[in-house]
Each structure stands twice: as C-alpha cells, then as structure tokens.
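Methods: holo model generation. Sequences were used as deposited, without trimming of termini or removal of tags, and paired with ligand SMILES retrieved from the corresponding compound records. Each pair was processed once, and we did not select among multiple samples. The sequence and fe (ii) ion SMILES for this entry were:
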Amino acid sequence: MQPFNQATEDFPAVRARVKRQGFAILQSRATPEACEHIKAFIDTYPAKDAEINYGGTEKRIWGSHTMDPIVEAFGELSDQVMSTVFKAQAKVKTVLSYSNYPIPAEDRLITGRWHLDSLRHQYKLFCFLTRTEEQTGPLEVVPGTHRTAFKLWPLASGQYISRADLGTDKRRYQKLDEQWVDAQCHKAGGSVPFLCEAGTLILVDTSAIHRARPCLKGHRYALCAYYDHF
Ligand SMILES: O=C(O)CCC(=O)C(=O)O
Ligand SMILES: [Fe+2]
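and the model returned the structure below.
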C-alpha cells in the first residue's frame, strides 16, 4: 500500500509561498486508507502512555514515527519535502500523532491559544487526517507575521518578550494577548483557518502567529513532523 499520493511538487513555489505568507499547502496527500490506518493507531494507543490535554479531549502521541510504519513513512516524506524546499539536510525530530474532540465550554480552555513556537523561523509539516471545518478545531495562521519586518515592532514593544520573562525560560509569545492578536489579524486582512480535505499536507513557519482553534464539534486527527532550526 502506498500511503501517500506523491504529486510532483513545485518546490521553488512552495518555498516562495512559505517565505511570503508563512505557509504552503502541498499537492501530495495521504490516501484515505492511510488516514484510516493512522486514526486507528491513535485510537488504540493506550491513553496512559499518551499526553492528555484539555480535559481529556486531546490525545497526543509523541515519537509515533517509531511506533507505526505509516507514520514513519510520513516522517520520511516530510524529510524529503523539507530538504528539497529549504535545500538543507532535514531530519525529523519527532512525529506527533494526535486527536481532538470537543472541549468543555470553559473559557480557560478556549482562549489564550494564539502563540509563536519560536521567534526564529521554524518549520513543521502537518498532515490532517480528517476533513477540517470551522468548528472542528482547524489550525489557524495570521499570514505574514513570520516576517522579520513584522516581528520587529512586537519585539520592541514588549509584546513578544516582556521584562518579567528575562531570566526565565518563559516568553510572552508563548501565549499572546487576544486583543492584540485581533488587531494584527485585522491588519493582515484576517487569519487563515485551514479548512481542508482529509489527507492534506501543509508546511507552516510556526514563528508566525498561530493557534489550534478549539474543537467545538466533531473531531480532528492530525500528524505533525517537528524539526530543529535549519
Ligand atoms: O494543532 C494545531 O493545529 C497547531 C498546534 C500548534 O500550535 C503547533 O503544532 O505548533
Ligand atoms: Fe504552535
């Protein structure tokens, strides 16, 4: 079974899109069979060995590329994509397999999600295993906020690193102010939630402002390939 329909990607165009907007949707896809297989892997993985968040509604399996051959194949595909797009040797650190179900309607679980993973450019390849819709908790990015020209002002004004962060390993950018993000979304012409078919692969610069929108209905299953800076 070929788990991915590998299309001929226009890699320079992918690179250009990531540089311009902070993300690019690939042509290659996971097959429906691969999506079903990985969903079953996530469901049957013992909860006691997984990371469970948001009141039991999120299940995260770290290092899943060493546990399941199809997830491993995603890691390999991801290495090929990253190495070609960025013309650098890329080796996946870990593949996270995860699922989200509707969260309890508590404010603290719904708000405070906008963040940067890092101030420096950092790349992740996501594969969404279920069709994502407005209510199922799509990944959402504020386009253009990965650019150095954008980051300078929030850095200088203390929005990304506050005085209280100094001398700690906490950074304000790990949990951004909602109102401030609203204003940035407005300036950027809106945030982009990835509403996509099952099997879609998306490369994201996670130094852009982003979040997983809370899942309110249905469910969402995904893979995410993690990399060090390169
Ligand atoms: O699950 C998502 O949609 C995004 C989560 C996130 O912020 C990340 O993986 O960096
Ligand atoms: Fe993130």
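Residues 154 and 204 are 20 Å apart (CA to CA).
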